[in-house]
Amino acid sequence: MFDNGHPPNGGASGGKEAEVVTTMRTAVGYPAAHQLLRRAQLELDAADASADPQTAFLHAHMAAIRTASAVLAIAPGAPRRRRRVLSVWEQLAEAGPAWERWAATFAAGAPVRAAIEAGRLPELDERVAAVALDSARDFHDEVRATVREAETVAVPSLAS
């Protein structure tokens, strides 16, 4: 955006002005979502580097939480008053039908994460950790593409 909230030339939408607006929107777009996706990527990297299945699972689950938070950062809609706090997975499911499958997938892993953190799970099968990591990677990739698409869709309204 520019000082007056419009691109140069009173909001002309052709030529270089449109390119400038597009570049700025992509760079600024959804900074909270981008930051959350970067933090999720760090969790995925940590999961990849871990030889311990429990640690890998915890990092994969945290990556999914940060990725879900990125979805919520771009989700339209006014906040509603609630009587109870909703988990990130419940909020993700409410963000739209496209996210319901992911919400269910990671909500199912929440008790495993809690058991690991509480020390109630002495062992975790490597395959369980690998599935969690693969799911978290796929979710991250889908959300990253969604954020990029949301930014691209938002550009024309800025250039008009």
Features:
mainly alpha, 160 residues, single chain, disordered N terminus
Word description of this protein:
By secondary structure, the chain is mainly alpha-helical. The protein has helices at residues 8-11, 15-28, 31-49, 53-74, 88-94, 100-118, 126-159. The chain has one domain (15-75, 85-159). It is built from seven helices and no strands. The chain starts with 7 loop residues before the first helix and ends with a helix. Residues 1-28 have low confidence and may be disordered.
Overall structural class, as computed from helix and strand content, comes to: mainly alpha
Q: Roughly what is the average pLDDT, rounded to an integer? A: 82
Q: What is the rounded Rg?
A: 19 Å
- The domain count comes to 1
Low-confidence stretches: 1-28
Helix content: over 70%
Q: Helix and strand succession?
A: HHHHHHH
- In DSSP terms (H or I, runs of 4 or more residues), the helix count works out at 7
Task: Give the overall silhouette.
Answer: globular
